[in-house]
Amino acid sequence: MFENKKIIGVLLFSFLVQWSWSQNPILRLGDKDFVYAADPAAEVYNDKVYVYCSHDQDTAVNYSTMQDYIVLESDDLKTWKNHGVVLKPREYSWAHGQMNAPDVAYKNGWYYFYFPYNKTYIGVAKSKTPVGPWEEAVTDKITTIFDPTVFIDDDGQAYIFGSDSKEDIGDKGRHVMGAKLKDNMIELDGPWMRLSEETVAEAVHCFKRNGKYYFMARKGWRTGYWMADSPLPTTPYAEFKGYITKRQIDAPTHMSAIEFKNQWYYFYQRGDVNNGTFHRRSACFEKLEFNDDGTIIPIEYTLDKGVKTNKPVTPIK
Predict the structure, then answer these.
(1) CB 210 within 8 A of CB 294
(2) Between 20 and 30 A from 163 (CA), which of 17, 36, 103, 169?
(3) CA 19 to CA 17: how far, in whole Å?
(4) Local confidence band at 163 (pLDDT 50, 70, 90 cut-offs)
(5) What is the pLDDT of residue 252?
(6) pLDDT value, residue 311
(7) At which residues is there a site annotated Important for catalytic activity, responsible for pKa modulation of the active site Glu and correct orientation of both the proton donor and substrate (predicted)?
(8) Is 58 among the catalytic positions?
(9) Which one of 58, 153, 187, 229 is the catalytic residue?
(10) What is the CB-side half-sphere exposure of residue 168 using CA atoms within 13 A?
């Protein structure tokens, strides 16, 4: 009897801990200056978390109206400052078309904002602060790839990653792709390289933990992940380890991962909250935990108490 009570107590405590920290979604419909913040690229700068998001319009029925970028900021992952739209690339004479998932990287005193325009052309803006104001760092695309993400290794070498799902780069098919960036952060330093044996759809992200490199991407309608001993694993490719998510809720999965105050977090999007849809998404996050061998423990999606969900829409496959 005592053991049964002890087990029930442990399970209840675990549930309460998980429930009590849940902050999802980050922004709530009805809040002042609410926006649909999608494709969250989380970064840690100056002991604060900054989440760089694409912007779904309130009336969006597809992704063609995506045209600017949002920044969310927090120093505790409980209270968030919504900076709203901070970058409007269409104000640049050379940037046009659909502007989907971005990323930001810091080097040599500058924050570099990598944004797609025309879906796969990669432009760059820069700023002296994590939130702007942003100025043109280039006057044309620096490369073509889908859903760019930038990672700077411990030795200062910068890399850019993405998928060739909408670009014909390298081997036929859709794979995790990577390339070096020059020290100026606005030019490739070599060709794009294929990093995965398996095919992916989109949303590539890279992070490093305990000397291992992790690559995440949408595979089917879930987040798959790979591990490698180098940032450009080509011989052999990065090893596919399985899935981080069991499912995805009414939105194509797009994710990022950070370590903040000795805890890892997984940021993602969902379309079943805030009166959202497949094309009106909201940023969320969960704790990210690892097994002793470095593999990732699959996450469970959570919502803050009282948050209502819409009926999920089955994605078109």
Answers:
(1) yes
(2) 36
(3) 5
(4) very high
(5) 79
(6) 67
(7) 147
(8) yes
(9) 58
(10) 0
Q: Of 68, 147, 164, 202, which is the active-site residue?
A: 202
Q: What is the pLDDT of residues 207-226, one digit of tens each?
A: 999 999 999 999 988 999 99
Rounded CA separation 98/116 (Å): 8
Residue holding tokens 């995790």? 176
Show Cβ contacts of residue 174 under 8 Å, excluding neighbours closer than 6 positions. Answer: 163, 164, 165, 199, 200, 201
Sign of the alpha-carbon torsion through 260, 265, 268, 274? negative
Residue 61: CB atoms within 10 A of its CB come to: 11
Which strand (E) or helix (H) includes residue 117? strand 110-117
Task: Give the residue extent of every domain in the chain.
Answer: 2-288
- The pTM (predicted TM-score) of the whole model is 0.91
| 202 tagged catalytic | yes
Specify the pairing of strand 263-270 against strand 256-260.
antiparallel
Give the bridge partners for 260, in sequence order. 263
- 276 Cβ partners below 8 Å, 6+ apart? 36, 56, 250, 251, 270, 282, 310
Sorting pLDDT into bands at 50, 70 and 90, what band is 312?
A: low
pLDDT grade, residue 309 (50/70/90)? confident
**Tens-digit pLDDT profile for residues 116-133:** 999 999 999 999 999 999
Written as one string, the DSSP assignment of 12-51 is HHHHHHHHHH---SSS-TTSTT--EEEEEEEEEETTEEEE
